[in-house]
Amino acid sequence: MTETMSAAAIEGFGGPEVLRLVTVPRPLRINDEVVVRIAAAGLNPLDAKTRGGRGVAAAVRDFPAVLGHDFSGVVVEAPYEGFPLQPGDAVYGMIPVPRYSGSYAEFASVPSRCIAPKPVGLSHSEAAAVPLAALTAWGLIVEQAKAHERQRILIHAGAGGVGHFAIQFASYFGAHVIATGSARNLEWLRSLGAAEVVDYTTQRFEDELEPVDVVIDLIGNVHDNTGKRSLAVLRTGGLIINVPTGSWDGFAADCAAAGVRGTTFKAAPDAATLAVISRLLEQGSVRVHVDEMFELRNAAAAHQKLEAGHTRGKIVLRINETDSADR
Ligand SMILES: NC(=O)c1ccc[n+]([C@@H]2O[C@H](COP(=O)([O-])OP(=O)(O)OC[C@H]3O[C@@H](n4cnc5c(N)ncnc54)[C@H](OP(=O)(O)O)[C@@H]3O)[C@@H](O)[C@H]2O)c1
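Above are the sequence and the NAP SMILES. Below is the predicted complex in structure-token form.
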């Protein structure tokens, strides 16, 4: 195998233009890691925040730095003979960047706890769109909110990467889902399982809704005080989860004053949960939506679209040509 690989990397922090196609050393496998030949990489807002010097940028020590958490691809080196994933197996997962080199590259060496068999029936492009957003949605809806019947859950930004999974998980577990989005997405939000939808561009959700038990806040106060206004629709003792880091100064004090429970959240790689999510995708109970695909060399353009903030579902980078052949 070659010693080097192509990757989209940054030489310093800045706008989308700092993302360039470069040749870097191929990551070497150690301990329990699995080397994957990456077919496709999913984008997340965290990638753009890190590129700009926020997000997880504090841990970026060396340049060029290869960004990207999400991937789908094929195993080329396994850690040991009896490991359940072996060369040739299709896998997907989430890399803990920047402790590890990222997924905007031809290869990655990935800790075994971060990787699972690719869902059967999904292309690599579809699978690469799943991990971080779906693990976040699972953590919010299943682990934190404990979604169940007769529970009312308001999900802001329902049409985004996290939101479109969150709606589907919450409705799968029987909750009454209310989602916010703009007019062009309202019918789509209903098709994902939202029982009620609110167009945030023309309506104030706090004037429209009966009290809810849970708010999944994927916006914070960066747009029109969405986070703070959500306190007015929560029942006393209800739960609000503020997801975008740094988007709500004084969050804990505001929750206490409103008589509700509040928490933030951090997504983490988790192979066991990914395996459960795979089953839901394979049986068709949950679907992933890829809004647009870009070639690896056009990662900067992909970041521009990501940062515009109106992606429906996910954006994916195509890396290896074999993608469409392997479902
Ligand atoms: N803490 C963590 O572990 C963690 C994990 C994942 C994500 N996050 C954060 O959570 C946020 C959401 O992530 P994501 O991947 O879902 O983002 P995303 O895919 O970029 O979200 C885009 C969606 O947001 C919708 N939107 C934009 N402004 C809105 C508003 N004011 N009200 C309602 N919807 C609005 C857009 O719908 P329209 O086109 O209809 O406007 C679009 O579909 C980001 O800030 C991300 O960094 C945090």
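The domain at 133-264 is CATH 3.40.50.720 (Rossmann fold).
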